[in-house]
Amino acid sequence: MKRRDFALRSAAIATLGQLPLASLAQSKKDTLTLGMTLEPTGLDPTAAAASSIAEVTHYSIFETLTKINSDGSVTPLLAEKWEVSPDLRTYTFTLRKGVKFQNGEPFNAAAVKFSFDRAGGEKSTNKDKRTFANMSTQVVDDSTVVVINSEVDPDFLFLLGQATAIIVEPKSADTNASKPVGTGPYKLDAWSKGSSAVLGKWDGYRNAAAIKLRKVTFKFISEPAAQIASLLAGDVDAFPRVTTRGIEQFKSNPKFQVVANGSRAKTILAINNKKKPFDDVRVRRAISMAIDRKAVIDGSFDGLGAPLGRHYVPGAFGYVDTTAVNAFNVDKAKALLKEAGVTTPLEVSLILPPPPYARQGGEIIAAQLAKIGVVAKLQNVEWAQWLDGVYKNKNYDMTIISHVEPFDLGNFAKSDYYWGYESKKFNDLYTKSKNTLKPADRAKLLGDVQRLLAEDCVHGFLYQPLWTTISNKNVKGLWKDMPIFVNDLGALSWS
Question: Taking the model in full, what pTM does it have?
């Protein structure tokens, strides 16, 4: 060996000997960037209805007494265990001990009572306010709380695992929208509005060693082409509920994994039942019968959906198929409008939030409605505008939206809900179904509820979407199915 070569090799070996062992091997990646279609308007899931809030904060910053898993099962989270009375009205929860909020305050029964009382209080803007208003919460001791539900609800433990049931720290509750404080494994590090939000691992978490990701960044990307581009460029590592456009190219790319996510979501053409002429069931039925659901699914969601005939999804307990009740029939739709005394052309507003399924679906539905003399004026709005104008102020004729909550039939019993639907018959049937303990009897009543919604043609019921997650092949812990919209950050890691 030449003297020069020997000297160079010796220097290299000496340098290696001075480096820490950790630098000699590639350490496992501990940061992750997730794509999201919609940016939340705030970070308190008890203050507004948007599921995007939960996508950032649920199970990451905030926690609930119970946890809903990918398969829909319910397991303990902040509650260690519980006992349920035979009449399904009284729930006794034993809470985890030694848990703290991120501001150092203790988690205890008093915090649970505060959270539930606040959620059902007069000033509450919680979308499940009615559920909490029907509850009374009693503190037994610091680690024991009793919840008494005035109504029987077989799905109550599931509901307590949703984002609307988060446990908040009393002193910080009023500022959670911008400065969220929870008991979860992550804290908010930064929020660049219009761009991204960054969560950092909280070292004070009770099981911090099990959390593999040090930092998670959410990038807000609504435009379909930009979603695809961000994945291909590596700007995001995973994109749950990504646009359906361009999926095929990822299936054949070994760098990616494509996960088809089952859901309990219902995509609907929501109709303002309180506005004329939509207060006439014949008009609503005409609109519904003018819609070719298959064409909408194919054109706006690349065929990844199952047609719906009511606000209930296949596979759910008590499901009945009502898709034939208001089947596609242009001639009958025209006749119904004439029977209702509607003069055509009838101009209506069709308000479309940012998700591609809404924007693309709106164009297809507008073309279909034109064939019966209904002229739908498309209005593209941002998410905050939709929440304020449609959801809050009910200033709309029709809109396209996907409702993702599994158990939300109760919204039809809320006369002040943005749908404007009022039916004593529905209210009585729904209440009876909730208070019926025998499964077979309850299933029958739920079938009656579904048939009534189809007959009343409350909305143009469209389809149950099959969501898709595209991610780097080395991302582990992604949910296979999504009974609720959540990103379970504590379960994610790199291989």
Answer: 0.84
